[in-house]
Structures are given as C-alpha cells and as structure tokens.
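re: ur question from earlier - yeah i can do the single chain one, its not a big deal. heres the input i used so u can compare w yours
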Amino acid sequence: MTVEAIRVSPGWLDLRERADAAARVRELVGQLCRRLPAGGPWVIHDLACGSGAMGRWLAPLLRGPQRWVLHDRDPDLLALAATDVPGPAADGAAVAVETRLSDVTQLGRDELADATLITASALLDLLTGDELAAVIRACAGAGCPVLFTLSVTGRVHLAPPDQLDSRVAAAFDAHQRRMTPRGRLLGPDAVEAAVEGFRRLGAEVIVRPSPWRLGAAEAGLAAEWLTGWVGAACEQEDGLAADADLYRRRRLREAEAGRLAVTVGHADLLVLP
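and the output i got, formated as tokens:
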C-alpha cells in the first residue's frame, strides 16, 4: 500500500488463519492445476503476503518444486512469513521462499516476469480503483494464472438476528468504501471491479463464494471480528455509537457463550489468461 496504508496486526492474521483456510475454495486449485505444467517447477508471487498464510495453505496442495516470492510493504510481517514457511509440496517436493519489501500497487511487469502463478488473499477490498487497475495490469503483463482469495463481498449474516444488524452492516460497508488520501476504497465492490477489469483484457475469470462460517468453535475470532465490525461502523456513522455500545456488548456475550453464528461473505477469483 501507499500513503495512509491499512496496517494489519500479526495477532489478527494468526487468529483468522484457520478460518481463512477453511473458507478458501479448493475447487479453484484443481482448475488451476489443470492449466499449469504438471510437476512444476512453480514460481509463485504472493502479493501483500502478510504472515505468509496463503503459502502455508496452497503450497501443500500443489505438486512439484515451488519457489514462493512473498511481497509486502511491512518488514515485520515479511520477517514473520520467512520464519513460518510453507511446504512441503503435495508430492514431497521442496518449497523455497524469498521475501521482497514492495508496494504491490507499484509492481512493474519485470518484477513478475518469472511468475507461473500470482496469488493474493484478503487484498482487493483494501484497494482503490486506481490501485486495483495497477495490480490488474501487472498481473496481466505476467501472462500467468492469478488466484485471489477472500475478498469481502459485503454480505454478513448473524444468528440469532438483532434489529441493529442491518444498520451496523450498512455503516460498515460505507466505511469499507470510505474516501482516503489514496482515493476511495473499493470495499465490497472490489470483486465486481476485478472481474470486469480482467475480462476487459480478455482473461477468463471464475468466481466462487468463500464465506467465513463462525460458530462456537471460532468464538474468539467471531468476538474479535465483531469488535472491529462495530467499531468501523461507528467510525463511519457517529449517531450509531449510543445504540451500538449495548449491541456490541450483547453480541460479545453471545459469542463468548457460543450462541452466536456469523457468516461473513467473501469471494475467491481464479483468473486464467
């Protein structure tokens, strides 16, 4: 990212890794493998890699030797990713990792020229329209498949229902689309924008839903997500704060007691040149 970048804590990434792995669509990995040379070697560029969770999920599903190139603007996250590397591959082949401190919205074609696959997770909804266009151009220039997972779609469902659910959800979506010094964030519009952008360049784009489904076993993640969800909504709509405080505490009690089920909509995209 660039100015006023959204920073992600290692604790949050660790907390969500299991739910992310459960939500990602393995069907797309099967389709991907049918389009790439069997047995590798694979050179995989992971954009905005965070702590490296995408590689830890995907590398064991691919056959053949792999070299993962992890891109992120946060040196602390890159250092963390380098200490918890993915692998081995599905057939036992070696998986190597290198890290690059980089702004994924500024990547040139040459930086991805050796890629046989480009991946990213939980990235697209954090971008502006111009930033997404730059990422699409860089990926298209590499001429290889691209797998984007876990882009927010704006669909949230909580059970049992509460009368404030829809108001909080609407305020949160508006926050996701807020204006920043970088421009207006795409938020839940990112999936549609990415599909349109790649298809304009002649690529095939396959989209599948990849929702989080959080129940009693994920109560800790549900509580952390809920706190951030309500907080962002209140930041967007000042008048919501008075009602939202009681709502948040009520929902947190339900989550901690294992009585709250949360579905958070995401989508996975496979782009085939």
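Residues 114 and 197 are 22 Å apart (CA to CA). not sure if urs matches, ping me
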